[in-house]
Design goal:
alpha+beta; Pnp Oxidase, Chain A; UbiD C-terminal domain-like; 2 domains; six-stranded antiparallel beta sheet; five-stranded mixed beta sheet; globular
Length: 482
């Protein structure tokens, strides 16, 4: 009997299922220094990228593996989100409609469950035995300043006052010849707030980082789950059962029981290491080299033949740009529905903008000012605000997922003199290639009204294209055209 979605409880179960679906490719003999990263990058640019599992990495024994491309197409993302095993782009978007809000509401019913032990406890390294380079950590890009063990990671922190748990995908560079790792957390993220509060309270902050796991943990750690909702509980709502965790021996923080590799320790305000540069999700080495908080690692938990989950960013499309586009689109759509905005038809966060910088919103216009309202709302939503640059609002005859159609609407329906609003000093990022070194992480964004003028809806020129009914008729007559 084959593997089913219900059987997937860890990364190995996920790999077994995607292998049965013909979605996995094993590559042997790659070097950790650049070859894993370059092969992954070539793969992302294929029309149907595979999940790549690298084994027999140069200098490492068989079984010490690295996975990339885990969710770079609709089918594998559908598997990861437990929505189905044979979804294409359109079916995945439809299946996700309203799901993020449902998962948020259900999360308290699927709170992480503490267990005594799990596969991650097969090996526990302490003291002089701690060596992160025992795993085949890649140097992903030619311009990277080191080897990055945390790209597909989930960094777990907690609020010192409430105990609220957060998991975020913050990059981690190997430091001190494998004895520690820096944790690069953007200042506005929940994890950074937790760390600052711990520093103020006790002078140090507990932290756990899972470095290989069910890719679902990367999804929830890498998207903006609302504050007050634990990403671990949110993941439980997605799979329909609580995530099993063991308690860290040092910090007491939850550790995913079926994870492949987990590090546990402390951050101190004066313990930093130079970090970077790194190929960012914006497509540039834009972050430079900065002192970054670095873990005092006290425990490394790992399974036999552990698998490192890689998700390196870079010039789009990159490892997780498809996943982020789909998840951000669904979350922004649900957030707009929650505002009461009428006439919403669709939302798409385009991969070309890393799933953040370029958002297209489709509406059926109901009143004068409706399109501008939709754009301004979108640009300010918590789910959309970070590092957004462009919000483009289009009519309901334009597919927001098609960049060609969106640009066509801009060219034919936008009057730049009065259809573009610019908002300054908004929430940017230190990795923005336009930001001056040392300057605050503001950005500027534009809301572009690419809808037909409301007062001309009836008289605006008719689009010169075949009707949907006519297209369906000729496809039925000549199926090979589709």
């Amino acid at each position: 009997m084959g593997t089913s979605l219900e059987d997937v409880d860890d990364l190995r179960g996920w790999l077994a299922l995607v292998d049965e679906l013909g979605e996995l490719t094993v590559l042997e003999g790659a070097d950790w220094d650049l070859e894993i990263g370059a092969a992954s990058e070539v793969n992302y640019r294929r029309s149907r990228p595979a999940a790549l599992l690298f084994d027999r990495v140069t200098g490492y024994p068989a079984g010490a593996r690295v996975l990339s491309g885990s969710m770079s197409n609709a089918r594998r993302l559908g598997v990861t989100l437990r929505l189905g095993t044979d979804l294409d782009d359109r079916k995945l978007v439809q299946a996700l409609r309203s799901k993020p809000n449902e998962w948020v509401a259900a999360a308290p019913r699927f709170a992480a469950r503490t267990v005594d032990t799990g596969p991650v406890c097969e090996n526990i390294d302490t003291g002089d035995d701690i060596d992160l380079l025992r795993f085949p950590v890649p140097r992903w890009h030619e311009g990277d300043g080191g080897r990055y063990i945390g790209t597909g990671c989930a960094v777990i922190t907690c609020d010192p006052a409430t105990g609220e748990i957060n998991a975020g995908a913050y990059r981690m560079q190997v430091q001190d010849e494998g004895r520690s790792a820096s944790v690069n957390i953007e200042s506005g993220k929940h994890g950074a707030m937790h760390v600052r509060d711990w520093f103020a309270k006790e002078g140090r902050a507990p932290v756990v980082a899972s470095l290989g796991h069910d890719p679902l943990l990367l999804v929830v750690a890498g998207t903006e789950v609302p504050g007050g909702v634990s990403e671990l509980d949110y993941a439980g709502a997605v799979i329909g059962r609580p995530v099993d965790v063991v308690r860290g021996e040092v910090t007491g923080l939850p550790i995913p029981a079926t994870a492949e590799i987990v590090v546990e320790g402390w951050l101190y305000p004066d313990r930093t290491r130079p970090e970077g540069p790194f190929g960012e999700w914006t497509g540039y080495y834009s972050g430079g080299i900065d002192p970054v908080l670095t873990m005092d690692i006290e425990r490394v938990y790992h399974r036999d033949d552990a698998i490192l989950l890689g998700a390196p960013p870079g010039k789009p499309p990159h490892d997780y740009s498809y996943m982020r586009s789909v998840m951000k689109s669904a979350m922004i759509h649900d957030a707009l529905v929650a505002t009461g905005l009428p006439g919403l038809e669709g939302v798409w966060a385009h991969e070309a903008g890393g799933g953040r910088q370029l958002l297209a919103v489709s509406i059926t216009q109901r009143y004068a000012g409706h399109s501008k309202q939709a754009g301004m709302l979108t640009s300010s939503l918590p789910a959309a605000a970070y590092m957004n640059k462009l919000v483009i609002v289009v009519d309901d005859d334009v597919d927001p997922r098609s960049l060609d159609e969106v640009v066509w609407a801009m060219c034919s329906r936008t009057e730049p003199g009065h259809d573009i609003e610019v908002v300054r000093r908004t929430w940017g990022s230190r990795v923005d290639p336009l930001r001056e070194r040392g300057a605050p992480a503001y950005n500027t964004r534009a809301v572009i009204d690419a809808c037909r003028p409301f007062e001309r809806l009836e008289g605006f020129p008719v689009v010169a294209e075949a009707s949907r009914a006519l297209c369906d008729r000729v496809i039925a007559k000549w199926p090979g055209l589709a």
